Amino acid sequence: TNLGKPVGVYMTAGVLVGTVILLIWVCIMMLRMDFIPVHLADAGDRFEITSGYTDTEIKKSDLQSVQLLEDGLPDERFNKTNGLADEKQLLGKFEGSETGSCRMYIWLDSQEVIQIKTSKYTIFLNSKDEDQTTEWYELLKQEEQ
Questions:
Q1: To bridge 127 with a disulfide, which of 83, 86, 108, 132 should be the other Cys (CB 3.0-4.6 Å)?
Q2: pLDDT of 74
Q3: What pLDDT does 35 receive?
Q4: What is the mean pLDDT of each successive set of 10 residues along the chain, which is 145 residues long?
């Protein structure tokens, strides 16, 4: 780029500003994933799962089964297709070797996991607080019946 001409200066400035904006956005997304907790809410005809990365809605009519897995995730291989997978949590869209397409909202330090099967995919959900996980399970189980 020829910085001796105005077009070259504007192009370089545009690329630098775009890069800075992109870096700030990535930092904000990473902070949101780490510090915004997962939340399950009953929204009338559906359940809403919100997190710092992605949100999911489950229509109550699509709910097929709800199970509390006391020994953690099923013993299968999960591949991340979109989201976050680190030593603390699994968050986003995954593909299970047996489960198939699934959504994960999992804190790996917590043992209990709620498995929600819908007509579209399976959702795995838990909270850092095991009492909260149990409360969510009871709320979902009521609706399943």
A1: 132
A2: 93
A3: 84
A4: 92 97 92 86 93 89 93 93 90 94 94 94 94 94 75
CA dihedral 17, 20, 25, 31 (to 10 degrees): -160
Q: How far is the CA of 50 from the CAs of 23, 56, 70, 75, 103, in angstroms?
A: 24, 7, 23, 26, 12
Helix, strand, or coil (residue 28): helix
List the structure tokens of 113. Answer: 């996991």
The DSSP bridge pattern shows strands 56-59 and 46-50 to be antiparallel
Positive or negative, the CA dihedral 15, 19, 20, 21 is positive
Bridge pairing between strands 100-107 and 122-125? parallel
Rounded Cα distance, 124 and 101, in Å:
11
In this structure, what DSSP letter does residue 5 have?
Answer: S
- As a whole number of angstroms, the distance between CA 14 and CA 6 comes to 12
